[in-house]
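Example 3.2
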Amino acid sequence: MKLTLRVWRQQHAEVPGAMATYEVDGISPDMSFLEMLDTLNEELILEGDEPVAFDHDCREGICGACSLVINGDAHGPERTTTCQLHMRSFQDGQTIDVEPWRAAAFPVVKDLVVDRSAFDRIIQSGGYISAPTGTAPDAHATPVPKPDADFAFEHAECIGCGACVAACPNGSAMLFTSAKVNHLNVLPQGAPERETRVLDMVATMDEEGFGGCTLTGECATACPKGIPLPSIAAMNKEWLRATRKVRR
């Protein structure tokens, strides 16, 4: 395959960036998208140019590190992570635009790499059990109803990639935050801090500069792990419940 790549190049957040055009040839349809970028970088290095910076880690679709907007879609045309997207999803001779996540809360570090530490701060504000309880108990020590366990697991699948933010017209982090809130609040271990958790995490989300949610649904469509849109409604119920309890 021969492709034309239009890649966003930017030294850091304080300077403007621009799209740079590159031609790559000899791309196998069985390559992953990141392997194709590896090929591009090898050619750039051989030519004495600076390689394109992009984020990656496990390349197995489980860490959430890879974060690219490809032809306007978070993670590309398939509902999967960028590292699991293969070049057979594109046509020979196609022009492909490659950009970073674009959100005020995700400043550009360099080229296609953005700083997603805002997600870490949301989790740190309430996504843990602060009471000292000793070593972890056996998994079967606390009975959990199967519907609750299934609900918690469904939301725990969130890998924090940020595709929901990149896809949202408002740059909202509601789907991510709701996944983290819901998978802890529904379990008995998370019950003691149920109210403070949702209030703290939502407050931190707002402080980080994420946009408001208007329920357009783009976040759920882009999520590679299929976190459902009703997750946001479930978190809103938790937030209202906690707010009313605090006011009393």
